[in-house]
Amino acid sequence: MMAQRFDLFVIGTGSAGTTVADQCRQAGWRVGIADDLPFGGTCAQRGCDPKKVLVGAAELAKTSQRFYRTHILDAAGQINWAQLIDFKRTFTDPVPQHMESWLHSIGITTFQGPAQFKGDQSLMIDETEVEAEHILIATGSTPAPLNMPISGKVYTSDEFLNWDTLPKRLIFIGGGYISLEFAHIAHSAGAQVTILQRGPQILPGFDPQMVERLRQYSMAKGIDIHLNTEVTSIEGIIGDQVVHTVDTFHNAQSFAADRVVHGAGRIPNLSHLHLEHAHVPTTLRGVTVNTNLQSLGNAHVYAAGDAADTPGLPLTPVAVMEGNFLAAHLLGNHPKPLDYSAIPTIVYTNPALARVGMLEEEAQAQGYSLQVLTAETTSWYSSRRVLSPLSAFKVLVDRDTDKIVGAHVLGPHAEEVINIFALAIRSGISRTELRRMPFAYPTGASDIAYML
């Protein structure tokens, strides 16, 4: 059978892949796309969107409980886990069919199955061979190997999002955003939660002072966090798991749980593609690409999103930005170079922790003359009105230019307030100009003037 020919073939139906596929198809290209998982990508089905549904319920439950304890409400909110998961599925279940129908409607040929490279410009999807002038790898990420003896079952965040019942005792391996977010959700729903982090700090990409406030608050609320604790093995059966660890002082310890969840990071999802057949080099961060997202080993191959080794964080907005850039590049529209500066990132704990721009240590290392503006803000109106027990900020200003170079926000509305700081940094708005902005009041954004 003859190979099917395309101008562009995309592997992966997430944010990066569908962005490029759509724009190239609208330009008249013959476009094909394949996915070995249900169409729609991680964000819409197994990541950002369903996670935020659970986060929203956890926030409501915790807020109502605080108001109940102060006798403002007559009843405290309790999460019905099964009903919450059913509600989450109303968002995720329709995604694959809607995505596939949309792709068909704009004339893109779809393939359901694993894609594997056969040559520089050819792929096999099950028994079907395809050839393309351009091939885009947009396969996202997958949980990193744990590389330890494991007997029994270790669950992923994908599986956590589909549990019909929530176990009473949970252990999360790793202290990154996956573990912290799901630990806060589970704790809000009544589970006993332990986090085991091999390093000296949870959330290592965030401001250490903000992180320490969040850690202490989490511990005080009953989330058990162990730092400098490396997991060495996991054994047992589902419902009776034992996790063995050793700390930096070589002290051994064991923790028991009903289920163990893998939150120890993700890696580019590339191992199944047989990239060696297409001379596509990779690093631990993904496909090695130039500034046009083009493979350094094969000029016909590109990569974007979590599958590409770029300066960008593994975030949906970065994948979309790279997708838009690559589509413009392929269509000859000469886009501006990708700008990875000042892209906000958020940990959806309760409360949320947000960052944009540089850490204080990074700015000092680059020689900035810093003015560090920081305070705890639990007494501020925006925190008190929702009885938030934890809120703070840190803003980094370059004394020489009056420009903001970093912002870190912890507390209610952090995930929205951080976007204003991102806009200021990317647009070069000075501290003085931002402080004079007449934001609507009272809102989370109106606090910004008092942070500056």
Question: What this model shows, in words?
Answer:
There is one protein chain. This protein is an alpha/beta fold. The protein has helices spanning 15-26, 41-46, 48-69, 81-92, 95-105, 157-160, 177-188, 208-220, 316-330, 360-365, 381-384, 414-427, 431-435, 448-451, and strands at 4-11, 31-35, 109-112, 115-119, 122-125, 128-137, 141-143, 154-155, 169-173, 192-196, 224-226, 229-237, 240-247, 252-257, 259-262, 266-268, 282-283, 286-288, 301-303, 308-309, 345-347, 353-357, 370-376, 392-398, 403-410. Strands 1, 2, 3, 4, 5, 6 and 19 form a 7-stranded mixed beta sheet that branches. Strands 8-15-9-10-11 form a 5-stranded parallel beta sheet. Strands 21-22-25-24-23 form a 5-stranded antiparallel beta sheet, with helices on both faces. Helix 8 links the parallel strand 10 and strand 11. The mean pLDDT is 95.
Instruction: Give unreliable regions as ranges.
Output: none
Describe the biggest sheet?
7 strands, mixed
Mean pLDDT: 95
As a percent range, the share of strand residues is 25-35%
- Helix % is 25-40%
| Estimated structural class | alpha/beta
Q: What Rg, in angstroms, do the CA atoms define?
A: 23 Å
Q: Quick one: overall form?
A: globular
Q: In whole angstroms, how far apart are the ends?
A: 67 Å
Our count of helices gives: 14
- Total strand segments: 25
Keywords:
14 helices; 452 residues; seven-stranded mixed sheet
